[in-house]
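Entry:
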Amino acid sequence: MSVYQKPAHWADWKNKLFPYQVGFTCPPRDFYDGGSWHEKLKGSTGLKPQKPGYTDISSVPDRAKQLYEKVRPHYEHLYEYRLKDPLRFS
């Protein structure tokens, strides 16, 4: 056998890690949470703009408040460079 030739026993479907993957067949379930992903997707109404809103910081855990205070100066600095809608801000 040439060092570059695939061993013959690899062609036997019984030696495959996932026998259902032989040929062009689909697995019995997809990898999205046991197959229910597509069922959930059927009820989708598409992407819609979200209503702007802010979480009341007083109602979150202390760790979240600490993180908020730590990142807020960076957010405020970067906010100046945000992308703006050219039709709204012309």
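The mean pLDDT is 75.
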